[in-house]
Design goal:
By secondary structure, the protein is α+β, with helices and mostly antiparallel strands. It has helices spanning 4-15, 21-28, 32-44, 86-95, 143-161, 219-223, 229-246, 252-257, and strands at 48-52, 55-60, 77-83, 102-109, 118-120, 127-133, 166-168, 172-175, 178-190, 193-203, 266-270, 275-283, 289-292, 298-301, 305-308, 328-330. The chain has three domains: 4-60, Winged helix-like DNA-binding domain superfamily/Winged helix DNA-binding domain (Arc Repressor Mutant, subunit A), CATH 1.10.10; 67-257, BirA Bifunctional Protein, domain 2; 265-316, SH3 type barrels, CATH 2.30.30. It is elongated and about 80 Å long. The chain binds biotin (BTN).
């Protein structure tokens, strides 16, 4: 059900003119007092609406991903100005039975989480969201969803922004070796049935993380321009949802490889227990990295931090275990 706020905004945007309270009330089938109240709510939410004796004129909208900005999925989007982590909220909602393709989005996070138990610095200006999926797939196939998500995002960034977005295994989005976005996937399952998969995505959009982490970048830094987070989220959700419907998950890894800058590179994989170095020769259909070791054997790596050896962004800053990457830092 499309809310009155969405409908008011749609009318004001489509006419780009002053619309009277009477016109809006007739069009939307609610009283003029109700229109006035909704306009007040929109103003409080940051919309620049000029009210006069003639009616209402929309002069500007904030770049905030309010649910009513996504009329087609309004019941499935939850927005917070600030939250500990969208992963925590999403997990709670998923456990309580929220529908497939529910989105939790926040302007900033106090305890944003990165992979391998690190923190993800989540200042205002970035886009931070978690998507809850309820796929009917075997548990072992769940990493295929993140492969599809990272590929969709790289594709979108290339088309929408015109940047050379590429994927570094497992699911980092890099531009010229600098980290632009990260992805964290969690899953809950019973026996071999997936209950839900949460895909958390953090994109540096109009924030500038490079002061905190020199190997990170943002769309603002790359283009010199501000990007609408609302548009980015809308387009990503539409694209990913469509690809989920159409994609053959059995072949997603081979498509993912065409966006990857990890394959055929010498890499160092750091896990909590080991460090492996070798040539990244392939990913298997479930997203595991196949590493050719010095002795010629092939090692299948399921998780870990991946560093491209000899890249400008691979300059160890002391111990590998205290090294930071992207805008993540070790949790203290
Ligand atoms: C990584 O590269 O380590 C993954 C970073 C994932 C960050 C996103 S931001 C939205 C969601 N909420 C979190 O706390 N983390 C993910």
């Amino acid at each position: 059900m499309v809310s009155i706020q969405s409908q008011i905004l749609e009318l004001l945007r489509s006419q780009q003119d002053i619309l009277s309270g009477e016109f809006l009330s007739l069009k939307l089938g609610v009283s003029r007092v109700s229109i006035w109240k909704h306009i007040q709510k929109l103003k409080t939410a940051g919309y620049d609406i000029e009210s006069s004796s003639k009616g209402y004129l929309l002069k500007g909208s904030p770049d905030i991903p309010y649910p009513w900005e996504f009329p087609e999925r309004q019941g499935h989007i939850v927005y917070y100005p600030v939250v500990d982590s969208t992963m925590i909220v999403a997990k709670d909602m998923a456990r309580k039975g929220c529908p497939n393709f529910t989105v939790v989005v926040a302007d900033s996070q106090k305890q944003g989480r990165g992979r391998l138990n690190r923190i993800w610095i989540s200042d205002p200006g970035g886009l931070y969201f978690t998507l809850v999926l309820r796929p009917k797939i075997p548990v072992a196939h769940s990493p295929r969803l993140s492969l599809l998500a990272s590929m969709s995002l790289a594709e979108l960034l290339r088309e929408m922004i015109g940047i050379e977005a590429a994927v570094k295994w497992p699911n980092d989005i890099l531009v010229n070796e600098y980290k632009l976005a990260g992805m964290l996937t969690e899953m809950e399952a019973e026996t071999d049935r997936v209950q839900f998969v949460s895909i958390g995505i953090g994109i540096n959009v109009n924030n500038d993380p490079s002061g905190i982490e020199p190997r990170a970048t943002s769309l603002k830094r790359l283009t010199g321009e501000t990007t609408s987070r609302k548009d980015l989220l809308r387009q990503f959700l539409n694209r990913f949802e469509q690809q989920l419907r159409q994609a053959d998950l059995d072949h997603v890894a081979s498509r993912w490889k065409s966006y990857s800058i990890t394959i055929n590179r010498k890499v160092r994989i750091v896990t909590s227990q080991n460090i492996f170095e070798g040539l990244a020769v392939d990913v298997d259909p479930d997203g595991a990295l196949l590493l050719k070791m010095a002795d010629g054997s092939i090692k299948r790596i399921l998780y870990g931090d991946c560093f491209h050896i000899n890249s400008s962004a691979d300059k160890p800053l002391g111990s590998l275990f205290t090294q930071t990457y992207g805008i993540e830092k070790e949790r203290s």
